């Protein structure tokens, strides 16, 4: 009995405490609700709360905005513009609960004002794509995907596709693998919309966007990007086969990298880009018709998107494909045994394909990708004329047999051996080939020997394939192979006979060599500096190199900007007479002015890295020696007094070491 009384007392005590807590908490809640502005009357205060730097106030603002929108009261144009500017900044909110609440509110705004937000579509897509690529919780990632789906439903395909193309081509954006994959998948989903056929080719940048998607389908680092890009190409093709086919035939030659990500397109001429896209589509259609790979990532698991009226049936797509192939290349049978230099007659009758038609329907995705990458490396080379130089280099003789200054001829066995080396390198040095690292090193060493000895006919005829291999090895894991690739590139530039084949890839090679300046191994960095110096002494065309290096100096991170400065200095020293006033306008801003890319990141003389500051001074000394003080005066006047004194000191030292024949020039 006594025990029961104790239990009753405890229960009564708990009830009293609970009641007391409720009476103390309820007034606080009532006060908090009273603090909320009336959402129907005080929208300006809501916007101020949303713009607050305090999380609690932002939360109150977002909740008030939801209540405001729930009453079907629309925002004015000015209020909506102010709110979207705030929302663009809210994507960077690190507060998890704040981000979830923000995305919920954003979706309500999109539903209410979908007809008024056309001006904001690009910013919205860009923020969502980049946010998805960040490290977010699964719950936030799910809300972002649902937001993207809402965007797809609420806006017209003619509004969305041009903005996706814009993001795809925006050189200022640096999306990661996840962001690129989501963007490509989003574009693929847009192709299933009823009005997509006209929208995919209508934008003025549709051709460049298609080139970028083709480039993504050959991405060397990410299978997810390659896979998403291939599915996207198939979706575009299915959406409007005739229009996409016409677009493929209009592919221009790429003459300049818009960004580092686009550089690999330089290795592809229009016919190769057409073949890549056509092979992807043909491979997809073959798998779909045979049904041999229902689970392949290349074949979407969702039902086939509805085609536009202009899209022909399956049999007609096959005919279109065959027609395109006939106009872009011959029917091709490729195998590694047929690689290597051939006589012109052989090349006219036998071209080099990826062997897609020879693959069984049951091959795995790795074989498909390898086959397409082989096609990308295909080179329909022509016989290049060679010229003899002052050194003991070969020159073209009868039927392509080279002769040397030493004895006037070379044995057929030597030519066969050198050609065999090139074939072995192309076949066995691909980055994903099973050949051991040591064997690849031996093969690369043999190529270096061929170039040094002047046996370059095979290198010339297969330069594009070899360049692809060298560039791939620059990003590979083996340090010695990275160094060997740099040595080969330097040797190629030093061999005057090879100038005719590397000239059109000078921008790409320059960027890759400068990227090697960021290598984690000191010996690779040293070799990259040596290679850049060798390139600077013999590289051409001069204008192309200057216009490639100038933006790199302004925008590249350290130490790539340091490498660009050193290379520019060597280039100016080797070609002082070619510097014009237009070159100075391109070069000097990156050397003199502060161009902040990140917080605490500046380029040029105000760079936070001492070697960059010193190299910028050395570069100005070289320019001073090349053009004289008069033409540099306007630029130098922008320097601080201490930097002007430092520059004068180095100029004085340089003049003391200058011979009378090397006096500065003042002619423009």
Q: Gyration radius, to the nearest Å?
A: 32 Å
Note the beta-strand portion: under 5%
Number of helices: 31
Distance between the termini: 112 Å
Q: What is the β-strand count? A: 0
Helix content: 55-70%
CATH-defined architecture of the domain at 38-155: Alpha Horseshoe
Structural class: mainly alpha
CATH homologous superfamily designation of the domain at 38-155: Leucine-rich Repeat Variant
Please state the overall shape, judged from the principal axes of the Cα atoms.
globular
Q: What low-confidence regions span 5 or more consecutive residues with pLDDT below 50? A: 17-40, 253-261, 292-416, 594-607, 661-668
CATH class of the domain at 38-155: Mainly Alpha
CATH topology of the domain at 38-155: Leucine-rich Repeat Variant
Assembly type of the chains comes to: single chain
Largest beta-sheet details: none
Round the mean pLDDT to the nearest integer and report it. Answer: 73
Signal peptide: 1-20
Biased composition (Pro residues): 300-312
Region (Disordered): 286-318, 335-361
Keywords: Signal
């Amino acid at each position: 009995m006594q025990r029961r009384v104790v239990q009753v007392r405890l229960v009564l005590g708990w009830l009293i405490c609970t009641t007391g807590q409720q009476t103390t908490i309820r007034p606080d809640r009532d006060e908090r609700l009273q603090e909320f502005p009336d959402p129907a009357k005080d929208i300006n205060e809501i916007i101020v709360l949303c713009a607050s730097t305090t999380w609690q106030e932002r939360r109150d603002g977002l909740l008030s905005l939801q209540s405001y929108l729930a009453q079907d009261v629309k925002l004015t144009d000015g209020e909506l513009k102010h709110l979207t500017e705030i929302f663009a900044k809210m994507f960077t909110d690190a507060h998890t609960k704040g981000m979830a609440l923000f995305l919920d509110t954003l979706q309500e705004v999109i539903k209410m004002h979908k007809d008024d937000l056309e001006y904001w579509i690009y910013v919205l897509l860009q923020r969502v794509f980049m946010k998805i690529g960040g490290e977010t919780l699964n719950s936030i990632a799910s809300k972002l995907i649902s937001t993207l789906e809402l965007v797809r439903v609420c806006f017209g395909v003619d509004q969305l596709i041009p903005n996706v193309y814009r993001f795809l081509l925006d050189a200022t954006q640096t999306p990661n693998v996840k962001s690129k994959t989501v963007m490509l998948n989003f574009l693929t989903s847009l192709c299933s919309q009823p009005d997509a056929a006209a929208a995919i080719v209508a934008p003025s940048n549709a051709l460049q966007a298609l080139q970028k998607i083709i480039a993504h389908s050959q991405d060397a680092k990410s299978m997810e990007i390659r896979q998403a890009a291939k599915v996207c190409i198939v979706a575009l093709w299915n959406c409007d086969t005739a229009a996409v086919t016409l677009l493929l035939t209009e592919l221009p030659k790429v003459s300049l990298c818009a960004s580092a990500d686009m550089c690999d397109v330089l290795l592809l001429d229009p016919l190769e880009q057409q073949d890549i896209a056509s092979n992807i589509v043909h491979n997809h259609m073959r798998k779909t018709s045979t049904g041999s790979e229902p689970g392949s990532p290349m074949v979407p698991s969702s039902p086939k998107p509805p085609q536009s009226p202009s899209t022909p049936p399956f049999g007609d797509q096959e005919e279109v494909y065959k027609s395109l192939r006939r106009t872009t290349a011959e029917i091709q049978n490729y195998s590694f045994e047929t690689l290597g230099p051939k006589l012109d007659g052989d090349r006219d009758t036998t071209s080099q394909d990826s062997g897609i038609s020879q693959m069984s329907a049951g091959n795995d995705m790795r074989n498909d990708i390898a086959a397409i990458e082989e096609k990308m490396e295909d080179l329909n080379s022509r016989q290049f004329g060679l010229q003899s130089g002052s050194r003991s280099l070969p020159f073209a003789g009868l039927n392509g047999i080279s002769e040397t200054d030493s004895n006037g001829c070379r044995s057929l066995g030597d030519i066969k051996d050198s050609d065999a080396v090139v074939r072995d390198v192309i076949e066995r040095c691909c980055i994903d080939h099973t050949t051991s690292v040591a064997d690849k090193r031996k093969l690369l060493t043999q190529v270096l020997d061929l170039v040094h000895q002047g046996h370059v006919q095979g290198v010339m005829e297969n330069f594009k394939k070899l360049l692809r291999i060298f560039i791939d090895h620059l990003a590979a894991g083996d340090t010695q192979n990275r160094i060997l690739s740099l040595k080969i590139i330097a040797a190629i530039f030093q061999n005057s006979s090879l100038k005719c084949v590397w000239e059109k890839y000078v921008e790409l090679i320059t960027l890759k060599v400068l990227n090697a300046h960021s290598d984690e191994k000191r010996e690779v960095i040293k070799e990259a500096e040596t290679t850049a110096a060798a390139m600077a002494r013999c590289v051409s065309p001069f204008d192309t190199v200057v216009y490639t290096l100038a933006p790199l100096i302004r925008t590249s991170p350290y130490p790539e900007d340091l490498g660009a400065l050193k290379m520019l200095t060597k280039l100016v020293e080797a070609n002082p007479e070619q510097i014009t006033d237009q070159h100075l306008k391109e070069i000097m801003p990156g050397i003199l002015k502060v161009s902040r890319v990140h917080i605490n990141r500046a380029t040029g003389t105000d760079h936070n890295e001492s070697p960059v500051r010193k190299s910028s001074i050395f570069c100005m000394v070289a320019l001073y020696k090349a053009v004289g003080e008069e033409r540099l005066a306007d630029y130098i006047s922008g320097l601080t007094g201490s930097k002007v004194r430092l520059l004068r000191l180095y100029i004085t030292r340089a003049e003391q070491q200058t011979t009378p024949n090397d006096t500065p020039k003042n002619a423009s």
